[in-house]
UniProtKB/TrEMBL annotation, chains A, B:
Signal peptide: none annotated. It comes from the Bacteria. Gene3D superfamilies: 3.30.70.2860, CinA-like, MoaB/Mog-like domain. Residues 7-174 form the MoaB/Mog domain. This is CinA-like protein. Belongs to the CinA family.
């Protein structure tokens, strides 16, 4: 058993121009981490021969596995395949089975292959093809002097399918990697430097098998404990022991120790308590519903939602009283209270939540500036509200409102 | 005037473990691109001495500007500052003005500086500090042999403020960079290979000053034209000319040529035609509403939406007939027709749209497998429907359903 190191190469001018956010390498890092393969570095290079060849050479020096994404399309600007053929000094070969499969898939959609598509069945002789179920460009698996080079498409869905169905299972089969365990401890309401001060003695006493990192966010700091070694049981016990100590030292700031997002946590809590939720969203415009319904199985606890963007809909469809909106305005404590209570009744849910605010950039007034947000939570016995003054752009304000409300739901459910 | 090349170094195990998505380098790439500085490469390395020092050395060889993010916090796991001091062979110096400023800012929040915070006012002698308005770790600007090294915090808000207020203005002042113009042409409903075939002759005849890239997505392909040179006017004219040609060749697939997205395009069309829209979402669970309301000014044309996840809500709140759902099921042409027509009436909009399908991973049956989706669009004179069989995961199915429906709205509005 030895450490296996991977290096990631993303190819594409669109990433370096700032037009495309590279989520591929994020996904790959997470998946490799789960099976104990360490990513030592990731590099993004442009669609140019020299940059790509240079990246291949450097990566081969540093890592055991080189994972390449991008530049595999059927069009001229895609250079990865010819350059890999050159790098491995390999001729090209037409794979009849891949061609047949492509023909069949196109026929099903009532289309015929053109020359560009046909070219995708041609691969360097020295590689093994990796099946692409969602697209037309196969992946390529090369081996040379105990190094593995794998090329995958840049389209996230295609790359993910390839990783999950072909590449990760193969890695698990051939590598016997050390155990790598992460534990994330979520804290809220304490600045990083204060937390570090409180934890100084504890940190100095940490076992060498454990590495600590502070990951600061907006009003939140995550502590990450990483243990690596051979004995999973021993490492887990070690981590549990340190988490216990952390609870004793800074327990009042800790709101969770697991992975997964806040919407998932709330789903778990709702399921456990056999409760359902419904949302009335104004300023968040469907984002809260989207986060909840992004989780598989959410229909078990999510009843539904409404986003009555205009006041007449808040009144006529949701049932907020006209006088309330006239007297206090749509962005007010009174309005979010009625929104939460009405959506709870109308959608026949245990919990009703609501948002109303000025997301910006327009719509602000002297009294209610951009970033002013009210949220409410009604559970049938009482209705809680919160007022926020956020200072981000439209996207930021929508996101932090949603997270704040999800956190209110979490706190409420956790105190039951 | 010569090309100026930048290399980006992100420091942090959290990125390589797949725990944090690196949005910082995406932001920096986009901002540098706007002022004509080319990012030749970006690299992410771990929180270890060797990786960081090695990245400094390599970047210095390749680029004129080296921008570093991360590893600047007050805690022990943050290595960037001591390593930069070592790299530039520099002693440390306490900046009294920074210390005073920190004290003041802490006092305003009713807190006192601790030793860790005080340490943040100590910087390598050889750097100029860069002000951090949103956090406590100053940035550092080093110069050596005509190379610029700048270190910034990893917290996105702090890094962005530093870039916008200090670093980009300084770059504009000292560099006279070539013009770099991008034009994005958004197409929808045509596969990449078909598009490439149709554009082959045009592509072969492109001027050398223009570079073409295909950026495929779900149901969408973006074409990016990049022109670089000295004469902005000439380059703009050249690009305009090619865009005209593209419209003649594949105009029916083009929905826009700007930086905006499909939801924005629909917003523009609705505004121009003085029309409004309302959404009844089942399987997309609020995502369609979220995409529409992510755009500033959407309240001008977006009336609101409802996501009646459960059938009783489709019936009791939205007003779909009970018999329809009982006879045909929730995922059926009949149901999406009634959903679209009812949300149009109930929300008093010109156009009502609806989605109902099996997003997965659960919920599929023999007749209605995961990925089966119906969408509808009602405009008061007729109601159109579309049936799809998608094959992605839950997120992919939700996203492509939304894109497909937005495209139906675009086509309908464009034919008016």
């Amino acid at each position: 058993m030895k450490n296996i190191y991977a290096e990631l190469i993303s190819i594409g001018d669109e990433i370096l121009y700032g037009q495309t956010l590279d989520t591929n390498s994020h996904f790959i890092c997470g998946e490799l981490d789960k099976i104990g393969i360490r990513v030592s570095r990731k590099v993004t290079v442009s669609d140019s021969r020299d940059s790509i060849m240079n990246a291949f050479r450097e990566a081969e020096k540093n890592a055991d596995i080189i994972l390449i994404t991008g530049g595999l399309g059927p069009t001229k600007d895609d250079l990865t395949k010819p350059l890999l053929a050159e790098y491995f000094d390999s001729g090209m070969k037409l794979h009849e089975d891949i061609l047949e499969d492509l023909k069949e898939r196109y026929a099903k959609r009532g289309r015929e292959l053109n020359d560009l598509n046909k070219g995708q069945a041609e691969l360097p002789e020295k590689c093994k093809p990796v099946e692409n179920k969602f697209g037309t460009a196969p992946g390529m698996w090369f081996e040379k002097d105990n190094k593995i080079f794998i090329s995958m498409p840049g389209v996230p869905r295609e790359m993910q399918q390839m990783m999950q169905d072909s590449i990760l299972p193969k890695f698990k089969e051939i590598f016997d990697t050390p155990v790598l365990i992460h534990k994330m401890i979520h804290t809220v309401g304490v600045p990083e430097s204060i937390l570090a001060e409180k934890l100084e003695d504890w940190e100095n006493g940490l076992s060498k098998e454990i590495k600590l990192a502070y990951l600061p966010g907006l009003k939140q700091v995550k502590l990450r404990l990483t243990a690596s070694g051979k004995d999973e049981k021993h490492l887990n016990a070690l981590i549990d022991q340190e988490v216990d100590k952390l609870y004793k030292l800074v327990g009042k700031y800790i709101y969770g120790t697991d992975e997964g997002n806040l919407a998932q946590k709330i789903g778990d809590l709702l399921l456990k308590q056999n409760k359902t939720i419904a949302c009335a969203e104004s300023c968040t415009g469907g984002y809260l519903a989207h986060l909840i319904t992004s989780n598989a199985g959410s229909s078990e606890y999510y009843r539904g939602g409404i986003n009555p963007y205009h006041n007449d809909l808040k009144i006529n469809v949701l049932g907020v009283r006209k006088e309330t909106i006239e007297k206090y305005g749509a962005v007010s404590e009174q309005t979010v209270i009625e929104m939460a209570e009405r959506v709870r009744e109308l959608f026949n849910a245990d919990i009703g939540v609501s948002t109303s605010g000025v997301a910006g950039p327009g719509g602000g007034t002297k009294d209610k500036r951009v970033g002013t947000v009210w949220v409410a939570l009604a559970d049938g016995t009482k209705t809680q509200t919160k007022l926020y003054h956020f200072q981000f752009d439209r996207h930021g304000n929508i996101e932090i409102t949603t997270n704040s409300l999800l956190n209110l739901v979490r706190q409420t459910l956790s105190s039951n």
